[in-house]
């Protein structure tokens, strides 16, 4: 220190503290002088600012300190507080931007940070989706054979590069060899079939075992679809690690493994989880989102849209999916950014071109026949089937998952995966429609039968005198290949229905979109072939007479498969608008939007008749997540006083007083209870409400004060008022905690209808609200109390809500 300079006596007595605190103390010097003056006016009652010459330390917590505003794991965020904090931050940046050019540039960077995050999410999500698609194609084909000159090529890629492949044998090429050809030099016969069968099962078991082992050891949160948890997180729940870097890495790797193993699951739902992990990673790089859980959830909503965009090649459908199915809070700004993220993700995927057809869509179809009004009846029947299938699947799957959670079965996740994989592989291999990947199956079922198709489904008896163009082939009688395919499809349909019930929910990444679509596509294709043959053989019936003349191309079985896929997916998930948009983006069949709408609405009506919950909501309730669904209606005539705590016969509510409790009293209250926060009242006699203090912030405030503020001891008075209380001489320093006090907690009267309270919790995203009468505190209602009450009113177990 330079000679002649004087040391501030306050700083000389204080413990070593940071430069920022020293600056703060000097800035508060005038407050100390006022405190001394107050002490001189009343020598008997000393103001808290006059103790040991350290008056300015009492306002130490007026400045922010680390970790305030954050939340503990498995707790719900306070949407109102997050919104208020973001408004304050924005107001501060706006006011500072007028001070200098540098501050103005910083304000522009802050404004553009949201778009930068969306760009990065789209790029990474699209890249990961493209890599996953390429890896799945290769590893799926690896179960049956290998490309000799480049083992990293899939069957299709290997044959593309071969000059020896003919059109008639386009599925066979010398460069691609099955395992039997490579190992025993036999392509036909019983021994070759058995060897290929055995290696198919072994590859499937290897992939599945590796996947479940990686999930169990490195990232337990990487299992399942991820959409139920994403919905819960977007509603304001904290699940630490669910969107972490390890989860992102392991889910990406294991998703390739499980889809390649041939299990009845898809990659579309998990891709939403992967995209949200990308969103969480990039939002952590910007303080605007990393320090505000409400703003972070806006990023995650946009990331979910990008995930569906790359899963289906449906950017608009992705935005609508995020809006309709996943998001809890979706302002207009998030809609624009979701659209941008979905656009970037789709463009990135298109640049990678994983399908090799220069198209973004997964199942591109090109039908040459319009649909007719009389076909609405079978379309609606497919909608009924989809609703019934959705109901059956949800009830059976939830029953199986509950059994898994409550019995010893849940203790052996690896064994369960191995057994289900073995059963799937053993039954799937003999049937060509279950042996191939589910995406290839759906693509074949959607296709129209042209002159160049070699599928069994297109084995019709052709008229040798036909002179029509290739794209306008008339309806023809079915050949033996079609009837064989019908039997195989029927067996595959039963197998898919049963095995998907046991597969979804295992401790591996598992999506439900593709298996549900496969069930509907198989049922729809069989119905379509039936209607086609009925129209061909009975074209003189009144229902066919006006639109199906002999020799005309009347019925398109592939369209029925597409409608059936939409119906079954809608029955399971209860999506409507986003489902229809995803389906016509997925296939390019914009002309057939009305049949898709009819099937989707019918499916939802039928499924809702048996229960309002979709599969994701059912799994949310099964896991006990605190999720208030905006679609549910509360019609019971109960009041806030019926739900609030404490109830009659219970201990009184734990509260803090504004200026009469010591640090030790507060710490004892925190130690003896597990509440997330405490109301602050004037006194325990009056119980006039002052505000609300969060448990975590109380702990952090006291901890920081003990470390940084000299003189704070267990006997120090804690006060939440603006001015310190008057204390006797030689009393220890008081601790001011007004900064962490919420002075405007949401309150309702004891006679407020619970219907209104539930609506308030849904629309404002509250953690808790206080119940008062004439300003006097009576009790508290938390989100958990609301969920328990709703479960009790629905004759369910109220203790099924496990989390805080």
TrEMBL record:
**Keyword terms:** Antiport, ATP-binding, CBS domain, Chloride, Endosome, Ion transport, Membrane, Nucleotide-binding, Repeat, Transmembrane, Transmembrane helix, Transport
Its primary localisation, in coarse terms, equals: membrane
Q: At the top level of its lineage, which domain of life is listed?
A: Eukaryota
Which SMART domains would you find in this protein's record? CBS (SM00116)
Matching CDD domains, A to Z? CBS_pair_voltage-gated_CLC_euk_bac (cd04591), ClC_3_like (cd03684)
Pull one GO CC term from this UniProt entry: endosome membrane
User: Mind listing the GO molecular function terms for this protein?
Assistant: antiporter activity; ATP binding; chloride channel activity
Q: Which residues are listed as membrane-spanning?
A: 112-132, 197-222, 243-263, 299-323, 376-400, 412-429, 485-505, 512-531, 559-584
Cellular localisation: Endosome membrane; Membrane
Q: Name one Pfam family in it.
A: CBS
* Residues covered by the CBS domain: 644-708, 741-799
PROSITE patterns, alphabetically?
CBS (PS51371)
- Family per record: Belongs to the chloride channel (TC 2.A.49) family.
This protein's name:
Chloride channel protein
Protein source organism: Grus japonensis (Japanese crane)
């Amino acid at each position: 220190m330079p000679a002649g300079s004087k040391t501030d006596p306050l700083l000389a007595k204080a413990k070593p503290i940071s430069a920022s605190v020293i600056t703060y103390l000097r800035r508060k010097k005038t407050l100390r002088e006022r405190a001394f003056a107050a002490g001189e006016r009343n020598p008997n009652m000393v103001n808290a600012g006059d103790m040991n010459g350290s008056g300015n330390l009492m306002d130490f917590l007026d400045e922010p300190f680390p970790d305030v505003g954050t939340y503990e794991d498995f707790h719900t965020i306070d949407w109102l507080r997050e919104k208020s904090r973001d408004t304050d931050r924005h107001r501060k940046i706006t006011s500072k931007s007028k001070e200098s050019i540098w501050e103005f540039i910083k304000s522009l960077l802050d404004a553009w940070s949201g778009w930068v995050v969306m760009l990065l999410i789209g790029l990474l999500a699209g890249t990961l989706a493209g890599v996953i698609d390429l890896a799945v194609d290769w590893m799926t084909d690896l179960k049956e054979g290998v490309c000799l000159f480049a083992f990293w090529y899939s069957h299709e890629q290997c044959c593309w590069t071969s000059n020896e492949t003919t059109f008639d044998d386009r599925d066979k090429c010398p460069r691609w060899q099955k395992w039997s050809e490579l190992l025993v030099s036999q392509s036909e016969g019983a021994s070759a079939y058995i060897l290929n069968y055995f290696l198919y099962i072994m590859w499937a078991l290897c992939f599945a075992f590796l996947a479940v082992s990686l999930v169990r050891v490195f990232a337990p949160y990487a299992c399942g679809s991820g959409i139920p948890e994403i919905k819960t997180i977007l509603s304001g729940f904290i699940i630490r690690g669910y969107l972490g870097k390890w989860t992102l890495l392991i889910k990406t790797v294991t998703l390739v493994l499980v889809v390649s193993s041939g299990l009845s699951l898809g990659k579309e739902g998990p891709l939403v989880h992967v995209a949200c992990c990308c969103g969480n990673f990039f939002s952590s790089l910007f303080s605007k989102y990393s320090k505000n859980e409400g703003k972070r959830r806006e990023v995650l909503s946009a990331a979910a849209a990008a995930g569906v965009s790359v899963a289906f090649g449906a950017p608009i459908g992705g935005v609508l999916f995020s809006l309709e199915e996943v998001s809890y809070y979706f302002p207009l700004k998030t809609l624009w950014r979701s659209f941008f993220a979905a656009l970037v993700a789709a463009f990135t995927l298109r640049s990678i071109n994983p399908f090799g057809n220069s198209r973004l869509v997964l199942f591109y179809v090109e039908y040459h026949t319009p649909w007719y009004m009389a076909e609405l009846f079978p379309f609606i029947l497919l909608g009924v089937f989809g609703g019934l299938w959705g109901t059956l699947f949800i009830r059976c799957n939830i029953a199986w998952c509950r059994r898994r959670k409550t019995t010893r079965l849940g203790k052996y996740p690896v064994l369960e995966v191995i057994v289900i994989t073995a059963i799937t592989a053993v039954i799937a291999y003999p049937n060509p429609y279950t042996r191939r990947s589910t995406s290839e199956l759906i693509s074949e079922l959607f296709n129209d039968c042209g002159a160049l198709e070699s599928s069994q489904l297109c084995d019709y008896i052709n008229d040798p005198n036909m002179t029509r163009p290739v794209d306008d082939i008339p309806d023809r009688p079915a050949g033996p290949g079609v009837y064989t395919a019908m039997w195989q499809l029927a067996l595959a349909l039963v197998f898919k229905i049963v095995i998907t019930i046991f597969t979804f929910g295992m401790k591996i990444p598992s999506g439900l979109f593709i298996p549900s679509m496969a069930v509907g596509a198989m049922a729809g294709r069989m119905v379509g072939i039936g209607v086609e043959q009925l129209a061909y053989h009975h074209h003189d019936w009144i229902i066919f007479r006006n639109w199906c003349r002999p020799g005309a191309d009347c019925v398109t079985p592939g369209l029925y498969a597409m409608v059936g896929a939409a119906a079954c997916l809608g029955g399971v998930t209860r999506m409507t608008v986003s489902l229809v948009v995803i389906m016509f983006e997925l296939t390019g069949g914009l002309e057939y939007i009305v049949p898709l709408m009819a099937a989707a609405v019918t499916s939802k009506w039928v499924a809702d008749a048996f229960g309002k919950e979709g599969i994701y909501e059912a799994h949310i309730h099964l896991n006990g997540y605190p999720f208030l669904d905006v679609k549910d209606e509360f019609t019971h005539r109960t009041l806030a006083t019926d739900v609030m705590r404490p109830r009659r016969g219970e201990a009184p509510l734990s509260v803090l007083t504004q200026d009469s409790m010591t640090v030790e009293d507060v710490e004892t209250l925190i130690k003896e209870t597990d509440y997330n926060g405490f109301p602050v009242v004037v006194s325990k006699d009056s119980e006039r409400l002052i505000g609300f203090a969060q448990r975590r912030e109380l702990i952090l405030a006291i901890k920081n004060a003990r470390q940084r503020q000299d003189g704070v001891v267990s006997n120090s008075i804690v006060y939440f008022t603006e001015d310190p209380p008057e204390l006797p001489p030689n009393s220890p320093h008081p601790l001011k905690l007004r900064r962490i006090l919420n002075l405007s907690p949401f309150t309702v009267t004891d006679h407020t209808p619970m219907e209104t309270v539930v609506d308030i919790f849904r629309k404002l995203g509250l953690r808790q609200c206080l119940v008062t009468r004439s300003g006097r505190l009576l009790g508290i209602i938390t989100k958990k109390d609301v969920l328990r009450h709703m479960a009790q009113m629905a004759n369910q177990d109220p203790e099924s809500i496990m989390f805080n």
